[in-house]
Amino acid sequence: MSPVWLTDTVTPDLDRALHYTHLWGLEGLVLRTLGRAGDRVPFVNEAKLRRRMAEHEMPVAAVVPGMFEGDVSDRIAWLNELASFEETLAFCLRIDCPCVLVSAFRPGAPVEAVASALRRAGEAAARRGVVVGVCNEWDGAFPTARALGSVLEVVAHPAVGAAWSPADARRAGEPATEGMEALQGRLTFVRCLDGRGEGEAWRPTALGEGEVGWGEVLRCLRADGYEGALGLEVTTTPRPRAGLRDATALLKTLRAAERAHMGGA
To answer: Which of the four pLDDT bands, split at 50, 70 and 90, describes residue 256?
Structure first.
């Protein structure tokens, strides 16, 4: 498993992001906004990005262009997003990025309608050798692993998989490891953040200090043979210090999961 991170959860500045990546011992980047406020992939300073990535020998594990975040009933909007998706895919090819992370529309979306949009995205991505990772988001149409697995079963496209967030699933009421079985064979990315319920509210916490149970999650992922990216998202403050703390916790927990797997082999 490869520990990477969503850079704009701490900074949109590429040079600072690369500095933190090396300092924290992570292995790659996930890009969403980069450079000036509002500069979102793929519409960023690509020349600088490619130059810096080559200089640092640092891969981009995934990009987050902001797709399928609205209402699936707004068909014109998501068809326009699909039309511009080709620009994102071409960008991915130029920076050697294997994965695009997308949402799955707002609550109340019919499964068939969502599956149709995701299948079209998968067909476009497959032509470019890229995969689409669909996020389960606590405030989206498919917040849990089981719900996400149900729509991916209908999509039934090899280039469309799950970008699983155990924390979002937990916030939606699903214990992290209970839903993992629903995503077997479809997991393309894992989003790493943590939090704790406080009454009806949810409080972000440092990684490993919330309700997710990251030790057990990583042990299960290792036992299931998952070898993809673990995408850290920093959700507490102060951001740079919190990033170092969370990255250290992720690496420590990952090493423990590897040792446990080797000991049981």
So the answer is: very high
Instruction: Please state, in angstroms and rounded to a whole number, the distance separating the CA atoms of residues 29 and 4.
Output: 5
| DSSP symbols for 217-243 | HHHHHHHTT--SEEEE---SSSHHHHH
**Per-position DSSP letters for 52-64, written without gaps between them:** HHHHHT--EEEE-
With vertex at residue 239, the alpha carbon angle to CA 237 and CA 245, rounded to the nearest 5 degrees, is 90
Q: List, for residues 96-129, the tens digit of each pLDDT value.
A: 999 999 999 999 999 999 999 999 999 999 999 9
Q: Residue 8 half-sphere exposure, CB side, CA atoms within 13 Å?
A: 16
Beta-bridge partner residues of 101:
133
**248: Cβ–Cβ under 8 A, 6 or more apart, which residues?**
24, 25
Mean pLDDT of 187-197: 98
Q: Measure the CA–CA gap between 225 and 235, rounded to whole angstroms.
A: 28
CA atoms within 13 A on the CB side of 65: 24
Does residue 67 sit in helix, strand or coil? coil
What residues have CB less than 8 Å from 118, skipping those under 6 apart? 68, 102, 104, 132, 134, 151, 152, 155, 157, 160
Bridge partners of residue 230, in order along the sequence: 3, 190
pTM of this structure: 0.97
Contacts of residues 124-127 at CB distance under 8 Å and 24 or more positions apart, as own/partner, are 124/82, 124/85, 124/86, 124/89, 125/85, 125/89, 125/100, 125/159, 125/160, 126/157, 126/158, 126/159, 127/89
Structure tokens belonging to residue 171: 């916030």
The per-residue pLDDT for range 56-86, each reduced to its tens digit, is: 999 999 999 999 999 999 999 999 999 999 9
Stretch 171-188: mean pLDDT = 91
Q: How many whole angstroms from its chain centre is CA 234? A: 12
